[in-house]
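Q: Hi! First time doing this. I have a protein sequence and I read that you can turn it into a structure. Is that right? Here it is:
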Amino acid sequence: MKQLFTILLVAFSVSAFAQSPDAFNYQAVVRDGSGNILANQAVGLRLAILQGSQNGTIVYQESFAPTTSDFGLANVAVGTGTVLNGNFSSIDWGNGPYFIQVAVDPSGGNAYAVLGTSQLVSVPYALHAKNVPANVSELNNDAGFVTSANDADSDPTNEIQSLSLNGSTLSISDGNSVTLPSGGGGGNTLDMAYDQGGAGAGRTITADAGEVAISTSSANAIGLRVTNSNTGVGIIAVNTNASNTFSPIQAETNSSSTSVAAVTGNSNGAAYAVAGQVQGGATAQTAVYGSNLRTNGGHGVQGIGFNGVVGETNYSSGNAVFGENYDAIAPLGNGIGVAGTGYWGVVGEDRYLGTVAGAFGVYTNGNYGASGVKPFQIDHPADPGNKFLRHFSSESNEVLNIYRGNVTFDSNGEAVVEMPDYYDLINKNPSYQLTPVGGYMQLFIKEKLENGQFVIGGGIEGAEASWTVYAERNDPYLQQYPFHRDVEVEKREGQKGKYLMPQLYGESMDKKMIQTSVREEVEQPKVNLKK
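A: Yes, that's right. Below is the predicted 3D structure, encoded as structure tokens:
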């Protein structure tokens, strides 16, 4: 099992007298990889004193083989172990700074692994006091340590003084004090932790006992800020477990304000504020996904701008914008796939502007319905810059096809009218309209429409007549779905009591059957972007 060693400097015991050893106490709490204390277990511990920096010269090195206590504590006295290098007593503590390096072997052998290096700030330097003459009490501000000595006489004014630490200020009881360097008694900075054990060596955090938590209670505060002043990325979140059902990044807000969002993207240049991308080899369906779980309003995705939402594709079999309503939640019968409101609610334009046959600005693969008139509208040929010209579609209680033409009568006063070769495939029940041209003629249908033609009689040789045939549409669509011929249709459940245009019947707009508005009653302001 991988071992995790938490090294804690607990107490020091130093002396300037010959009868006491040159040493200071060090304690280590030993835990396993799950944070459990390892009690009554032999471990290998190697300590080294480095001079100048975390990567400085090793002036002394020793090893220990302690056995942990019932509470997982390993107690050693630095300076009393098995010497591996140097002489502890000859260390010149006044020529610092000094650092202590900790290495361990969980098996209690000699396969040590370095856990880290920390600066010795103040207390071990009290060993330097034995180099100070008797009757001297000194505060060395340049070296950043305190020394004091007892001359073993009866004078109580020159005894060893007590030390106290308050934040980064180290004080002696006679009133003198010194400010410790940053990262000393005041605690390491995040940048020092980043460089612990070498430049960038401490940059990796393994959150194996819970998440890393950052919290703030300050007004308008930012919990975490990441700035990249060069090329590259500010934050990357990666999920490497294919079976994971959680997102790499989650954001949550319970704000009641409509001017905030759980996630906000802000662009001050040409870049996208928010982007989503599905790689070519992926199986995902959607690059950007919005889910609205409300049942009485709201939007899955909303866009605001000169163009609120834009869809593009280069695939002829794809759709630049696609909307689908499964019409599965009652009241049924009013499922709108795509809706638009405006002076022109929906506008379609074929990209070829009418120059390519078969292209449509708007195409419906099925029935087309309209509650108003169906005008044909173009720029007025006589005044195209100022006026429109409208012609209107005819309404009928039948589904009709209309055919028309002119004929000239032969010597028998007859004329044969040939219909298009597809006529019989899509029509039935024809009716006829005959109009003589140039004078009165008693025209009649001599032979009814059959096998794609009919015969007109009663004409005068060389004279002309106009004809019109109205036929009931009977193509495969209406053959399979004959109910589309129905003129009077009962409203479905959920539609009854509602109107296409309630204002025409003196009813309020809340009875409007087709609600095409995509906004709440209260206009939502733009989301505030915190700089």
